[in-house]
Amino acid sequence: MAKYDLKQARTSCEAIPRVYSGVAYDMCILRGKPSRTALWFGSIPELIFIDLALSGALDTVALPYTVFGQINDGSIYLQ
After folding, report:
1. From the centroid of its chain, how far is CA 55?
2. Is the pLDDT of residue 15 over 80?
3. Containing H/E element for 16?
4. CA separation (Å) from 35 to 6, 40, 64, 75?
5. Rounded CA separation 40/19 (Å)
6. Distance CA 58, CA 46 (A)
């Protein structure tokens, strides 16, 4: 699902690291083209900044698991 969303946003991101992947995903979305949902929900960057803070907190909690996944599996490639 995340791969599809990032391809739809036409971001320049080629891969997302597993460590702090929520923060990396939000940064890729911010660098992409605006989505059609911006017409319905108002300004999306404000919502992404809220999600960025929440993702940072949850990614910190999941850090031991994601470090293990990053070492074993590497980054998530979007191509």
Report:
1. 9
2. yes
3. strand 15-16
4. 10, 10, 33, 25
5. 32
6. 19
Task: Read off the tokens for 70.
Answer: 């990053």
CA dist., res. 15 & res. 76, Å (int) = 5
Q: Give the DSSP letter string of 21-75.
A: HHHHHHHHHHHSPPPTTHHHHS-HHHHHHHHHHHHHHHHHHTHHHHHHHHHHH--
pLDDT of 66 > 90? The answer is yes
Burial class (CB in 10 A: 0-12, 13-18, 19+), 29: buried
Cα-atom radius of gyration of the chain, to the nearest Å?
A: 13
Calpha distance 75→79 (Å, rounded): 12
Q: Check residue 10 and report its DSSP letter.
A: T
